[in-house]
């Protein structure tokens, strides 16, 4: 492919987008960059290809990184509606996969347990595990550490170290005890479980 055949990156739409988003006119940008209005108009209509120095000047004027001008098509975000979450029901309670089981590097689940005394057997897996209690109270154990947590409390531990939990209190009329668990997976290694299965494993 020759230099002439290579398609220069079209940045006009993004330059115009961020200029209008900032509430600036071409004259305003011209005053900030020292570029003339006609040239800026050509850039926005992809009739001129700005140099890196020019893009840097535009980035400073619009307060955006140069890379934002080079973004062409942005893939749509993934949306998992609450009513569409995959659900696993175990003897320990209801597990909703908040992220729709769609991510490779992170897993977000909501665990609900109706009765006090429900236990999550000892288990382990690669990566950190983050907990945020929504309702009720839980007792979480790892090694010699025993921590009681309640609504709004946050706990993080290394998931590779065996851990387990127990529901201390939860109002069944309010949906029982519940917490968000966010698991960070450093790679594709499967979870290592011992004893009873952990929710969502």
Detailed description of the structure:
The chain is α+β, with helices and mostly antiparallel strands. The chain has helices at 12-21, 26-33, 37-44, 52-62, 66-69; strands at residues 87-90, 93-97, 106-113, 119-124, 128-135, 137-142, 145-149, 154-158, 163-169, 177-184, 192-193. Helices cover 20% and strands 32% of the residues. The strands form 2 sheets. Strands 1-2-3-10-5-8 form a 6-stranded antiparallel beta sheet, with no helix packed on it. Strands 7-6-9-4-11 form a 5-stranded antiparallel beta sheet, with no helix packed on it. The longest helix has 11 residues, at 52-62.
Summarize the structure.
The chain is an alpha+beta fold and 201 residues long. Helix content is 20%, strand content 32%. The longest helix is centred in the N-terminal third of the chain and has 11 residues, at 52-62.
């Amino acid at each position: 492919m020759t230099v002439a055949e290579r398609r220069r990156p079209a940045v006009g739409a993004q330059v115009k987008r961020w200029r209008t988003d900032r509430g600036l006119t071409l004259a305003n940008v011209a005053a900030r960059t020292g570029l003339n209005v006609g040239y800026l108009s050509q850039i926005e209509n992809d009739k001129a290809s700005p140099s890196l120095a020019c893009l840097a000047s535009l980035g400073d004027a619009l307060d955006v990184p140069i890379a934002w001008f080079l973004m062409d098509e942005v893939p749509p975000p993934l949306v998992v509606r609450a009513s569409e979450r995959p659900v696993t029901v175990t003897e320990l309670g209801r597990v909703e996969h908040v992220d729709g089981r769609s991510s490779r590097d992170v897993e977000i689940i909501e665990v609900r347990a109706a009765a006090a005394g429900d236990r999550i057997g000892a288990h382990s897996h690669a990566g950190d595990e983050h907990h945020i209690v929504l309702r009720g109270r839980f007792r979480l154990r790892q090694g010699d550490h025993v921590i009681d947590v309640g609504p709004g409390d946050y706990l993080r531990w290394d998931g590779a170290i065996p851990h387990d939990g127990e529901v201390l209190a939860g109002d069944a009329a309010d949906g029982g005890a519940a917490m968000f668990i966010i698991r960070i997976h450093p790679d594709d290694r499967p979870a290592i479980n011992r004893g009873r299965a952990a929710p969502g494993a």
